[in-house]
Amino acid sequence: AQSVTQLGSHVSVSEGALVLLRCNYSSSVPPYLFWYVQYPNQGLQLLLKYTSAATLVKGINGFEAEFKKSETSFHLTKPSAHMRDAAEYFCAVSDSNYQLIWGAGTKLIIKP
Amino acid sequence: DTEVTQTPKHLVMGMTNKKSLKCEQHMGHRAMYWYKQKAKKPPELMFVYSYEKLSINESVPSRFSPECPNSSLLNLHLHALQPEDSALYLCASSQGLAGVEQFFGPGTRLTVL
How far is CA A87 from CA A28, A57, A104, B3, in A? Predict the structure, then answer.
């Protein structure tokens, strides 16, 4: 069965610093992988997705993620954090029934 | 139009009330979803409609009743809810089911007294 693990329920970085949010998955089929962001009191917005094309995926708001099959990882990065990046980030994998299996989420805290 | 809209934004209801949540999309998507999200948790899938037919019901109690009147609309009828049903209810849509992204609405914040 597919599963997603997000390491760190909270990640705190200083404004301008590198953001790294970790996501590891298990999947018995070639995975479709997604990163979503949720700002307080809002719905989820797609940041980026991996669908077996390029392994380095660029998304919105300066985020990108690299698919590493050997490590079963799909970590999310951003070179320079902004205050507006403070939010909850969810990694998800599409299972064999094409439903999304979600990670527990990582809250990104930006220190001024 | 790349938006999923949901009404109402907030809803407070008693345990004996009947209410409905509404969701609408005009992206031509043929799959629509209801999720329940508790605070600090990921969304939990409740129902999936594909081509206006219910394709997945994740063992949701019968006090939640989904309806898909047409390809653009999705309703969730609520009756005799419990306080533990208080949550953010999210609607989503996607072009199909296979490995495509889901577009989420802003959600309805439901409080059951």
Answer: 30, 20, 14, 20
